[in-house]
Design goal:
The protein folds into two domains: about 210 residues, Alpha-Beta Barrel (TIM Barrel), CATH 3.20.20.70; about 120 residues, no CATH class. The chain is about 40% helix and about 15% strand. It contains 14 helices and eleven strands.
Length: about 350
């Protein structure tokens, strides 16, 4: 019974398949389709206001009675100088002019938005919460655990996985280098790590006692089964669900993934100030000349936000962040529920073939 794992037992789901919490691309329809199909849907609430999170949770609950999770970005507070901001404004000016928009000046408010999001998770009786970009403070961990919430951390190295377990996370995502979107790295030595999923999963499995979730380049039943064989208790898939009908990714983003190859994705800090994997385009190529001037997250993200919004609205994929994992040739334009069942059927077929050849 390949689908009976510690993750499925603890999360009360049928299959060890988790839809990655892709901030900006998840919808109640996507989350509920995965959960209704027996996997775990995830609301990517990294950029949400408290009002938006409450709305998405309630809309998701209206179309599924199955478990789903909410993902939050752990706040971080970097510093920049006005000189650095002015320099990046100068570099981005051609793009502002191309779209005839005024630049946004970045600010970082140490407000209580994160705490409000955590409280909404508790108030709305959400029982699964995952984190990206670090580990929440002990007070937050204690508060969520007291409310009976299962906590899922993210690690890109063994050391990060150990820190997650020590901090009280109940599970940890082992995010390989192949993964699309932002790297979950938060320890300085891991920021430039390039450990692949197949290497990372068994090494983390040997060093922690909590369940491990394989992530990065997994798109189908073969990848899921490989992750399970390596010691993972589930697989988390992002790019696979990014091109589904229910995804909120812009049409040009989906088309770029569906028409790309494994050699087209690169890691870049150009859009947000954090390393993220996406499809190479003009913006990435041009910003490669200015790597020394890239602002740390979230400042770079704020300064490019308006540019990216206009690019999406006007269908200019050469300037848009096209997050994608390396296994782009395996992407499909299907409904999320159909994709999930195909993954399940593929694993069952693999097992039948193995049993036949014994």
């Amino acid at each position: 019974m390949w689908n009976h794992t510690e993750v499925t037992r603890q999360l009360k789901i049928q299959y060890p398949i988790i839809q990655a919490p892709m901030a900006g691309s998840t919808t109640p329809e996507l989350v509920s389709a995965v959960s209704n199909g027996g996997g775990l849907g995830s609301i990517g609430a990294g950029y949400y206001s408290p009002e938006k999170l409450a709305e998405d949770i309630r809309n998701t609950k209206a179309i599924t009675d199955q478990p789903f999770s909410v993902n939050l970005f752990v706040p971080e507070y970097n510093e920049v100088t006005s000189t650095q901001i002015d320099r990046m404004k100068e570099i981005l000016t051609p793009y502002y002019e191309e779209f005839n928009i005024e630049p946004d000046m970045p600010t970082i408010d140490k407000d209580d938005t994160f705490d409000q999001l955590v409280q909404i998770i508790i108030d709305e009786n959400i029982k699964i919460c995952s984190f990206t970009f670090g580990i929440p403070d002990p007070v937050t961990v204690k508060k969520l655990k007291k409310a009976g919430v299962t906590l899922i951390g993210c690690a890109t190295t063994v050391d990060e996985a150990i820190l997650n377990e020590q901090a009280g996370m109940d599970m940890v995502v082992a995010q390989g280098f192949e993964a699309g979107g932002h790297r979950g790295s938060f320890v300085q030595t891991a920021l430039r790590s390039s450990v692949g999923t197949m290497s990372l999963v068994p090494q983390i499995k040997d060093k922690v006692t909590i369940p491990v979730i394989a992530a990065g380049g997994i798109m189908d039943g073969r990848g899921l089964y490989a992750g399970l064989k390596l010691g993972a208790d589930a697989a988390q898939m992002g790019t696979a669900f990014l091109t589904t009908k229910e995804s909120a990714a812009p049409k040009i983003h989906k088309e770029a993934i569906l028409n790309s190859t494994e050699a087209d994705t690169v890691l870049t800090r150009s859009f947000s100030g954090k390393y993220a994997r996406g499809i190479r385009n003009r913006f990435i190529d041009e910003m490669d000349w200015h790597q020394e001037d890239i602002l740390p997250y979230p400042f770079q993200n704020q300064m490019t936000k308006k540019i990216r919004s206009k690019a999406a609205a006007e269908g200019k994929s050469d300037i848009l962040h096209l997050w994608s994992g390396q296994s782009v040739r395996l992407s499909r334009d299907v409904e999320a529920g159909e994709l999930l069942m195909d993954i399940v059927n593929q694993v069952n077929k693999i097992l039948r073939n193995e049993n036949y050849h014994k």
